Each structure stands twice: as C-alpha cells, then as structure tokens.
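Q: Could you write out the predicted structure for this multi-component system? I'm mainly interested in how the pieces pack against one another.
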Amino acid sequence: SAVISQKPSRDICQRGTSLTIQCQVDSQVTMMFWYRQQPGQSLTLIATANQGSEATYESGFVIDKFPISRPNLTFSTLTVSNMSPEDSSIYLCSVEGKGGAGNEQFFGPGTRLTVL
Amino acid sequence: EDQVTQSPEALRLQEGESSSLNCSYTVSGLRGLFWYRQDPGKGPEFLFTLYSAGEEKEKERLKATLTKKESFLHITAPKPEDSATYLCAAASGGSYIPTFGRGTSLIVHP
C-alpha cells in the first residue's frame, strides 16, 4: 500500500479566504483523488487528478471553487477558494491500490478544515 | 444510480460480544465491495475487497462476507481497540470510483 501524507493536518480559516492542501505519495501513481467528508456523511468525491491533464470534477464541484494541481506523479494540491462555513469538512486525498487487488483506494490522514 | 446503505448507524458492544455490521448495495455490475476502518482524526484504512457472492475474507477478529445484495462485517469477540467507524464502498462495472456508505460507528466497552 502507498504511504500518503497531507499538509496541513488541520486549519481554522476566515470566511472569504482560500486554503491549499498538499498531498504527497511515496510512489508514482497515475491517478489521485480528492474527497470531502462532512460530519455524519459519506465520503464524496470532489475530483480525479491525472498528471499532465486537467482534473475531472464530479457533479456539484467546479474548478473555480476547488482548483487542483498535479505537477508530477507523486504530488497534488487542492485549493478551497473563497471559503464559507459550509466548506468546513475533512478533505482527503487517495490513490488506487496496486497488485491486482482491484479498485480499493488508500487514503491520506486528511485535513480538517474549519471556516469561521 | 449506485447506492450503498450501512446499518446500524451506531453500535455499542461489550468486550467479547460478537456482532455484525450490514452493508446493502445497489450497483450496476459489481466490480468490488470494499471495507474500511476509520479512526477519529485519521483517513480510512483499507481492510478487505470482495468480488463475488459467496466470497469471504478474514483478518484477525473481522470477517467480511458478500451476497448479491449485501455484505456483512462480522466481528468476533471484539476488543476496545476495535472501536472505530467502519465504512463500506461498492464500485460498479461502469466506474472505477466506489460509492461509499455513511459508515457504522462501533464502540466496544471493556
């Protein structure tokens, strides 16, 4: 399984500001995924990030609000722009497993964001 | 639309009291059914993948089973360290992205 780190682990931000979350993987991966986990809710996929191409966003998420960068095969960033209290959530990055075990995903530790 | 429903939402057990968590799924052509464990303040930790009805996987006190409509995570003689939220996810044949359930919060009292 891949080892995934995220920065920051948590942050408290003011309304209207932006926060960039970093995700680092210890091996090269084709696809990286960004999820949001709100209290009492299931994990919701925000977007899929492939190296060298534009991220693919899920319904309800737009690039202007959640711009993503994927400069190489081990790193990605997610920016939460013009934040409001409704953006308070845990943000997780993940990668697909290898070794023929199917589509299981391995997750980073998450970034807990609170917007005041 | 793919759907995954987990029950119960929360479960409290005494140490040693075995029980099962349920995951009902509706997907078009199941590609894989996944179980994860999530501790507070951490990302989900992968436990099992099940591919076809009748398949079973075991890890320590946990055993996952799969039918055509649901999966069970059986916990035998649980210990307090098994306390966590257990997430289920299903991937359909048409998408490599799994749909997650809301999870079951398990608390095991000593």
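A: Regarding packing and overall arrangement: The radius of gyration of chain B is 13 Å.
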